[in-house]
Design brief:
87 residues; alpha/beta; 3 helices; 34% helix
Length: 87
Amino acid sequence: MIDAFGELVDEGCIAVFGPHITDNCVPTREAIEERFKVPAISVTGTDDWLGEWTFAFPQGSMTTSHLPDRPRRKRGIKEIGVLVEQN
């Protein structure tokens, strides 16, 4: 998982959706915060995922109340896309 995350970063991704399996989240979070410093958004239910670069939007909960804005501003990105489900 960590190697795959690194490949995405190397290809220029500015944010990653995932990982979504709780067992992968904590070790990946540690690598994200130490090496990659790229925002990652997951639907995991563990609070151990939450960090400066890792955000959670689990089903039925609002653990994180803000979008990862600081990394966007640091890179000078002025536009973002947001997906909203309406059903």
